[in-house]
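Researcher: I'd like a structural prediction for the single chain below. Treat it as a standalone chain; there are no partners to consider.
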Amino acid sequence: MKKEIYLDNAATTRIRPEVVKAMIDHLEQAYGNPSSIYKIARENKALIEENREKVAKAINSDKNEIYFTGGGSESNNWALKGIAQSYSNKGKHIITTNIEHHAILHVCQYLETIGYEVTYLPVDEEGNISLEDLKNAIREDTILISVMFVNNEIGTINPIKEIGKIARERGILFHTDAVQAVGHIPIDVKDMNIDLLSMSAHKFYGPKGIGALYIRKGIKITPLIHGGAQERNRRAGTENIDSIIGMGTAIELATKEMPEEIERLTKLRDKLIDGILEKIPYSKLNGPRENRAPGNCNISFEFIEGESVLLLLDMNDVCASSGSACTSGSLDPSHVLLAIGLPHEKAHGSLRLSLGLYNTEEDVDYLLEKLPPIVNRMREISPLYEEFIKNNN
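Model: Treating it as a single chain, here is the predicted structure.
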């Protein structure tokens, strides 16, 4: 049986064998609660700090600025709700964009129900915000700017350093949802003027259910989870030490291999994009060509629905998606694609192909062989395509 070709790494990644081994070794040998005082507990506490250091090193932060969480969504919730509560005496205005992940947008919508005001910045056809729009949106009562590092659907890399500089000069805190960026592109929180940053281990070949929030030293933030004194009194609950070890191992490997992997994935991505646009007429790349995440390819196909293409790809052992995994149950078109100006019908006909560590040139060749006839087959039964061909002959 042919192996599955996994092209949905933006949704989640396959855990690395080195990560599995590090976690299993710990599961089998160490079980003490890190908050206790006996030897195995102290050893576990030391392991947490050792892996906290690995996470900090990956983004050039101090170790004590890293707080482990249950994943990217918790980190985003904590960043926005915690800052909103802690700085409400200064103001209740937040700035974000209209193409954020729903773990940001839905939190903003919640904050609006309890008295906060949110400005949602628009983006251009490539998913970029205007820095002038950002400056003009800032008010006396603005307490937080939250802009994602890399868009999870179209791969746009935002000008984080410039946004951070604007925020820092105006005395406003800056948070970035870097779930799609950490472990994939270089990040330096000090150089980029980042105050808070969210990450999730399963996006860089680590385990699910573990993430972290970077909180710059000196920032006040209300805890999201109250209880014990873990994570320096900021995030209660017995630490998920096995997953913390997995996260530390994964981020260390990803950071070490990053330069070569960026170069490799960028070449594969460009071959994939060029091949699709060349082989399939009436197809369009969504998002920028250059300033794009190394493994991201998002294409719209006219006259068809993306969900149908996904089912036929699955029958050919290819795993892909039509957008964010967190909205896969929705029949609505992607809010990101609508925001960059695609009409509903084209947004519905989109495919996200996200390459990762385990993808090869053979995978790309296989997709370029299987995808064109699938799209042609769907168009042959499409009344929209039939009418288009009739009117253009």
